[in-house]
Amino acid sequence: MKDFSIQYDQWKPEEQKLREALCTLGNGYIATRGAAEESRNNEFNYPGTYLAGGFNRAKTKVADRDIENEDFVNFPNWLCLNFRQDNGKWFNLEEVKVLNYCQTLEMKEGVLVRDFRLEDEEGRITHIRSRRLVSMRDKHMVGLEWTFTPENWSGKVTFQSALDGTVINDNVERYSDLESQHLHPLQTEKLDNDSMLLQVETKQSKIRMSQAARTRFYHSGNLLDLTSETTEKEGWIDQQFTFSVEEKEQYHIEKIAAIYTSRDRAITESTLEAIKDIERANRFAELLQRHEQAMERLWHRSDIKIFNGSKTQQLLRLHIFHVMQTVSFNTIGLDVGVPSRGIHGEAYRGHIFWDEMYIFPFLNLRFPEITRSLLMYRYHRLDEARYAAKQEGYRGAMFPWQSGSNGREESQVVHLNPDSGNWIPDETHLQRHVNCAIAYNIWNYYLASDDRQFLSFFGAEMFLSIASFWASKAEFSKEKNRYVINGIVGPDEYHTSYPNSDEPGLNNNSYTNVLVSWLLKKGLEILEIIEKSRKRELLQYLKIDEEELQLWKEISEKLYIPYINDDIIEQFEGYHQLKEFPWEEYKEKYEDIQRLDRVLESEGDSPNNYQANKQADVLMLFYLFNEEELQNIFEGMGYQFNAEMISKNIEYYQQRTSHGSTLSRFVFSWILSKYNKTASWENFEALLVSDFEDIQGGTTPEGIHLGAMAGSLNLVQRCYSGLAICDDALWIKPDLPEDIKAIAMRIKYRNHWIGIRIKDEKLLISFEEGWSDKVKIGVIDQLFDFEKGEKRKFSLKAASQ
Ligand code: BGC
């Protein structure tokens, strides 16, 4: 195992779908799973190609109702390449003797390599080495190369290169009762002896995708002059090339494809663009070189070194890699958000949730340009959010829990429990806290980037619209003499209603109320930061008057927070009255109770009846804010808050959490880092392997968990390095866990590149380059002015004494 690669050295068909997800190559515009070129969708293989923002809606009758889902479309498979000897059977890894197999994800280069030797029934041994890329530099270009060596035979071989538009959405078994045909075949065409075209269109959203592919054969560096046979079927085109190969000779097959869609910018029409690129394309090696240079640039910005040469380093890099496959410079301006499961599979249908809150901190300090673009995805959907708020009788803007193409609510109305086979009403859309996350993200992007133009124009409009929504959602309770927020769901999705109640929603989710208090105040602060003229403009445009601003202040100071015994923040009003959950009994009864909701529903019960959580809820507060910030927020609301409460709350909720979401491990690792280093490290380790080992038993093959992946990076970046932005300075206060001896990374803080190196109780900070000559950096508790080009070393030993 090397730090920059992931290697699988055995052919294990049962693991293939997991490997496919983990070996997905993408460039922030398009991604292709790490499926074998010769495979089709079957028990062990699931080739999938996805387009950022590539959604399609379809209706299905489920449990006697017509439901509509917006799916993340599996677009045509461009990978298809196969061979057969003497008109025999097409090669299939499951039907031959596999002599050696090695599949390597080369993360540095962004290349997937498969190297294997196989022996067929007649004892013919063939060696195939395949390399593949999805170009980071030329976002429409993808390519693969086979090095084909007949080791002990000579004879006639036919190679088939195809574009397969007959694919359906079939990655998630739970969705198999739902409509899965999203593509309408439009066109197939032989372009030339070695190139072909396929065009499809999504049935409802009418996204046209054109793929043009060119397949060429080389021997001893020379292009082979071969005649092909083209076969066209509906949604499928292939070209077959037959020639004789010689024992021990090497043949190179290069398949290069260009992919365009009708949504692309600077195009006339997608087929013409794809054909043009294929005509202009050089050889695979050149494509590879350009791609590798772009990868190098990305790594230069994003690598986090921890120097322990272990699996930890390798997995951190895997996480960085997949963040970059999902969103990259190619994402900028695409009008797409960041899907919680990457563009690696079909789970959660490519939807965008609050997971941005876990992903943006990594991007903010390396690729602020990307965060800006992802925030613009929300901005462009502001009118839809306004409409949603209005429909429910509120002011301002109410963004959806799950967002897709146009920003309407995409959460399912019913979902399938695979354990029981029942379709269950889904009320998770009531997670209005996603609006707090968007506001928090806007503010934190601004803090990290100093992008005043964004804040004053787009950011403020979104922020204030969200504040307006919350101000109209909060109600005054005479009984409590405080403002309350009722009928919502908090981050812990296991609780969506009170026991035996037909009414969905809960009252006073503390996490949400605290964030609303914070954001209403921050909204007022933002109005003071932006230009006066812009403030006037916005208030008038958004119809926010002085009276409303006064109300924001009042609500923010008087929101109700339920408590249990003065020091435990109650998750929501009434949580404490729920029954305790018999954890031990269930741990004995079931092998895995991470998804307790499914287990209980199968028994005719519900987590709504218990103090049993899927994930961190109240505890999220300790991740988002530091002690001092929380003290200010709570005291501002007239509540007591002290440091001791943090550990008490952690203890209380830790015993009541099943970690049914990978996000939970991250939050626990973070909040425990100060109080229980061993437990924190255990959670960090679980987080690191959560996708690599598919700890949820089957979810990773349906897409990686990007929030958890980026969360692990954030832990190293913010938690262990103690990085924070406050009082107009970047603060660094390292607190490394036992198992991490050193950290080195570069961050982009307000247009300045800062190098940070922590090793042997020493901290080296270098102000590498930037727009201004000075930058304020605080170390532990002392503030310094750094000059451009300046490097300084600090002893952490002295500081910690
Ligand atoms: C979690 C949510 C998360 C979603 C998408 C769910 O399982 O409970 O908090 O946003 O997955 O990652």
CATH topology-level fold name of the domain at 2-301: Beta-galactosidase, Chain A, domain 5
Query: Which percent range describes the beta-strand content?
Result: 25-35%
- Low-pLDDT sequence parts: none
Q: How large, in whole angstroms, is the Cα Rg?
A: 27 Å
> Which CATH architecture of the domain at 2-301 is right?
Distorted Sandwich
- Name the overall outline: globular
What is the structural class? Answer: alpha+beta
CATH homologous superfamily grouping of the domain at 2-301:
Glycoside hydrolase, family 65, N-terminal domain
- Total of DSSP H or I helical runs spanning 4+ residues: 21
The ligands found in this model are: beta-D-glucopyranose
Largest sheet: number of strands, sense, barrel closure: 10 strands, antiparallel
Query: Roughly how many Å apart are the termini?
Result: 39 Å
- Mean pLDDT across the residues is 96
- Please write the CATH class name of the domain at 2-301: Mainly Beta
What is the number of E strands? 34
Helix content: 25-40%
Question: Overview of this structure, please?
Answer:
With 801 residues, the protein is α+β, with helices and mostly antiparallel strands. Among the domains are: 2-301, Beta-galactosidase, Chain A, domain 5 (Distorted Sandwich), CATH 2.70.98; 315-352 and 660-801, Maltose phosphorylase, domain 3. It contains 21 helices and 34 strands. The strands form 9 sheets. Strands 1, 8, 9, 10, 11, 13, 14, 15, 16 and 19 form a 10-stranded antiparallel β-sheet that branches. Strands 20-29-30-31-34 form a 5-stranded antiparallel β-sheet. It has a 4-stranded antiparallel β-sheet with strand order 7-12-18-17, with no helix packed on it. A hairpin with a 6-residue loop joins strand 10 and strand 11 (141-150). Helix 4 packs across helix 20 (706-720), helix 5 (356-364) crosses helix 20 and helix 18 (662-672) packs antiparallel against helix 19 (677-692). It is globular. The chain binds beta-D-glucopyranose. The site of beta-D-glucopyranose has 12 residues, from loops. Beta-D-glucopyranose is lined by residues 340, 348, 353-355, 491, 493, 614-615, 661, 663, 707.
